[in-house]
Amino acid sequence: MEAENQILTTQQSLDIITKMIRQAHGNVKKNSVYLILWGLVVALANLGMFVLMWMEYPMPYLVWLITVPAWILSIYISYRHGKNAVARSHFDRINAILWYSYGVIIFTIIVFGYKINFQLNPIILLVSAIPAFVSGTIIKFRPLAIGGILLWIFGILCFLVGGPWQYLIGAVAVTSGHLVPGLMLRNNPDR
User: Fold this and answer.
1) How far apart are CA 83 and CA 90, in angstroms?
2) 138 pLDDT more than 60
3) 90 or 147: whose pLDDT is higher?
């Protein structure tokens, strides 16, 4: 009861706030692995699709099977992060819900992609812009927020081109929207 009534000094309050900010930055930096992993995998799949379509391979979509090990690795990394987590802030929970929701939406788009003749790239890029921009804004990391804007621009551009060009644009979009900001976040000493 006495601990509840204790009044913190200004310095103690600042120390607590500083500790919380460091913890949030550490969690964000640790989670950059997802941006790097998925940026790399999706960029490679898009490039593979582009090349296979130009080669007139009958089933170019098979290149997307490289996402299966990426999903398994993501689940494993998430399990390890959760197991080793010291503390999760309110921001961490909001950010996790944002990205989980994104994953559910992407999965839904892929499952029902046949309804729109599997013209998924523009839609996926537009949806991908949201969590990148919001996360970048929340953590005040401009490269990720700008990456979200670039994903939006490239998503619009995909609507204007056809065939294999959408996959080349998709590779550039994911590289600039997820992979590069993820690498910058991972290597940023201030985070």
Assistant:
1) 18
2) yes
3) 147
